[in-house]
Structure formats: structure tokens, C-alpha cells
């Protein structure tokens, strides 16, 4: 795969994935086109007999909450292969900081309809002002047969904005600008007609019309009542390659859909000679403590079902390795003093190994050496990141997964500017470099 083809695919993937639900839906489409078969957690799995009947192994995927996914390729004979060779795993996360709509969101203020929102994750809030916002997510409703159905929606068009306060009314805005999340973030959706200014339009009624207008009449019954939803605002500006020499990728949700897509492409394009797995969890940005998060049972449950005993599982894990992929902080030229001078990753200089003495990252000398060797074999440059000793360090899925299942793990990522902004920036070559390393790992 060429860099241009990879980058175009990445941009299309991010554009079609405004929420974790849509990211998983898009990944499922790609997996099924490449021969992966769906498994259901509630069913009995017959992966043993399926793998034993194939000389090239079998490919499967399973989802949880439709916002987390595990996709894997296993060789035959299944148990013997897994115990002796282990499994090569890449981990990423599907969620990104955003503004989520509250359950009772309607706000009428000076003849404008606004929606109350809650900040999800550690969002950089200032860039959310004056952006063209749309809405996407999952809606659960009661149909005319009195049954619960679920539907993903993506309005795509800009339906709201969070206007900034004019500089004339806040003369200190360029010196200090504090944001009250309750009062300053509700997006403006519409101007209400004067004669209806006292009424409160029902957001669920609006959703009901949207659901019925977009439902598949052949598979979905007419919705009669909205029961619940998980909806997020997002910026409609599409991802783009930018820079005088097309050096950069500018987009929302690079953290961490870039890693999801990179791992996905490496998995579907590998040479089918190794046990390989990709896990993309939801809720990393809020601590991973959920059924669909890395601190839940999802990955461990899948791995346990591939082995026939606790002994086999323990041996498999001992022979396995994981690469936890989550974006890294590139050294910002305007704020270089925020970095350790010897550990400031440069965009387009290769993926980054993230190290922390206090185990905020799972990398150690053994796993770091493995990743450096993979980069060498893939002819890819590699960098290191250590946070300044006088600053707090973030964390990733790596330490959580390593502690939950005991797998040897290295934390890596693509250097990024403006992480957790509504529009982030990464190097175009770095994403492709990481794909080449992942493919080397899976091969």
C-alpha cells in the first residue's frame, strides 16, 4: 500500500466515524470485505473446529456495546498454535473528547433554542467555539410493535454553533478566557418564532422525526417513542492533508482513530502467518472503567474463549506481545519549553515509544527493544517521549491491559499537535510509518 492510498483511506475512515459507534460500524464493513466473520458474545463459539479445517487459519471479529471491537486471525491447530506462538496484539481506542447531549437538554434563552451538553473526557474547550457543529450517535426507541430498536444517526449538516463573546464585551479575552462548562458551552440550534418563544420544543420529538426519516423500512419498524440516546456534537469540517508540501493531516479525532485505522489496515493486509489481534476499546478518555473499556472484561473474555484451559491461557499470554497505540505529544515549536529537551518528538520523524518510570506507560526495556527492532526491519525511524520531570504524565490503555491480562506491552504513538482539540494535527508520513511497523509485527 502506498502512502497516498493509506492517507486517503484514513481521512475517509475518520470522516465516517464521528462517534465510537460509527467507528466500529465502519471497521466492521472493512473487516467483512476482507473475510472476517462475525461472532456474538452470547453464542457458543466454534472457532476451534473452523480453524482446524483451514490451512491458513480463520478471521473473526466481535463487538461489545457496538462501540468496542476485537478482530483476530488465528492459525491452525488453534490451541497448539496459540500456546506455542502466542498472539500479536495491537490496542487502540475508539473514543475522543467531545460534547455529549444531556438527557433533558432543551434550553430556551432569549428566543434561542440551545442544548445542554456535558464535556466528555479532557477536551480542549476553546477551539469548540465558532465551529460548524453537527450531531451523531445512537438512539434507542420503541417501535410500533412495542419493541426496542437501536439506530445510529449522523446528521452530517451543520445544525449548531457555540458563538464566542465579542471582544468588545470581554476586553480581557486574549489575556485570560475562563470557560464555564455549564453556562458557556450549550450550542445554539435555532431562533424560535416570536409567538412560540415561551414554549420548549421537544428534542426527542426532533429525534423521532429524524429516526423515521432515516430508518430502513425493510428492516426497521416505525419509531413511536424515543427512549434514550447517546449523542455527541462534532465539527463538520472534513479531515484534510495540509502544509506547503502536504506534510500534515489536520482532523478531529486523530486521537485515536488514527491508531484504530492503522492497526486495522495492518491486520487485514498481513500475510496470514501469525496469530494476530486488534482491540479497539471505548471509554479510554474517561478512565476505561466500563464493560466496553479496557478495564472491563472484553479482551480477556475473548482470549479465554480461544483456549481450552487456564494453563493454556497462561502459556498463550506468556508468549504474546501487545503494542498499545495512542497519539504522543509532538514538540510544539511555540512551546518547546513544555518538553524535555532530549525527548521532544518531531512530526514526520517516525512513531514514538512512550516511557514513564512510574508506569503511566507500559513500555520497558524488553518491549521497547522489540519495537525498535520492528522499526529497523520496516525501515522506519523511531523516537522516544518522556514527559518533563516537573509535569504530570498522562496514561493509555497500555498499563491497564498489561495489568488486566499480564501481556508484555509497549506504549507507542504518532506525534501530534493540539491533542484533544476539536482539530488536531499529525504528520502524514508518521501514520504510514506506524502502519508499516504494525504490518511487520503481524507478519
Name of the CATH architecture of the largest domain: 3-Layer(aba) Sandwich
CATH class of the largest domain: Alpha Beta
Helix share bin: 25-40%
| Poorly predicted ranges | 50-55
- In angstroms, what is the radius of gyration? 23 Å
Main beta sheet, described? 9 strands, mixed
- Structural class from helices and strands? alpha/beta
CATH topology of the largest domain: Aminopeptidase
Distance between the termini: 15 Å
Determine the mean pLDDT.
92
Taken together, the total number of domains comes to: 2
Widest beta sheet: strand line-up? 1-2-3-13-4-14-18-16-17
- Which percent range describes the beta-strand content? 25-35%
Q: Number of helix segments?
A: 11
* Morphology: globular
Helix and strand arrangement:
Elements: H1 3-15, H2 20-33, E1 37-38, H3 47-52, E2 58-64, E3 68-74, H4 78-85, E4 88-93, E5 98-109, E6 112-120, E7 133-143, E8 148-154, E9 188-191, H5 203-214, E10 223-235, E11 240-242, E12 248-251, H6 254-268, E13 276-281, H7 298-304, H8 310-318, E14 321-325, E15 328-329, E16 352-354, H9 365-377, E17 383-385, H10 397-405, E18 408-413, E19 415-417, E20 424-427, H11 428-442
Parallel strand pairs: 1-2, 4-13, 4-14, 14-18, 15-19, 16-17
Antiparallel strand pairs: 2-3, 3-13, 5-6, 5-10, 6-9, 7-8, 7-10, 11-12, 12-20, 16-18, 19-20
